[in-house]
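Here is my example:
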Amino acid sequence: MSHFTINNLDGYVIIEFPKLIYKEEINEFDQTMMAIPSLGIHTVVFDLRNCEMLYSMVFPIVAMIKMNLKKHDINLYSINVSKDVSKIIHTGGVEGFFSILDNFRQVQEKVGFKTESRPVLEAENLNFMFSGISTTFKNMYDVDTTRSKAQVKTGSFVQGVGVLCVINLVETDILGAIKIYFPESVLFGIQRKKFQIDAGGMSQKLISDIELFGQTYFDLIQPFLAEQNFKLVKTFPTVLVGLLSQLKQSHEVSMVMPFKTQYGEFWVEVSKA
């Protein structure tokens, strides 16, 4: 489980710090921040409202992060910093790396209220893509889903996966993909409910149906994205079957949304090339 909450909103990545940061959190923080320049954003914001203590071993990491972001013309600011944490930063002589402001409004004023972000990862489009999954799943399988909070993914999943459905996004200015990871528990639940098949493995009917799920989902989101000037080319879903070790999972930065069902969770990933 991530100790940092990461939100991608209209060109900003906002990273909420945990209460305390130890070595484990620093390693996670460092790995996450290495991937940030690939997101196509203009500003990173450290939100320290919950943070009660920063140890000096954090400072060199932040310094390197600041310099790396600067190379990519990405701003870095810190907001909601308590008096105690501000004093720690001041004593360490690293105010220039944290660039402390009072709140997010001040950050927007600093960067000129920029709202642009690159296609596919834009918040409104992401929300529609994720909502479309819920609608398609309900219509096809009569199973309700509950969305959790979207997170930035910087590596491959560790959970076991039964089927991976890949929907490629092809547009003049965009190359990307929507990937839906179904664990076996969800697949077997669907198989029993829709096909009344209670077997130890996945039937060919189910695998074909997952492909139909991908096509139906694409048909649902395509008109909306066309309204946003994303004229996507129709592509047929690719369905891969097998354990996680047999699936070729990408390591590019993307946004991932967990979906809870009565049969367990599945995950949807939206990425850009």
Remarks:
- The two ends are 26 Å apart (CA to CA).
- The first helix runs from residue 23 to 35.
- DSSP finds eight helices and eleven strands in the chain.
- The CA atoms of residues 10 and 124 lie 9 Å apart.
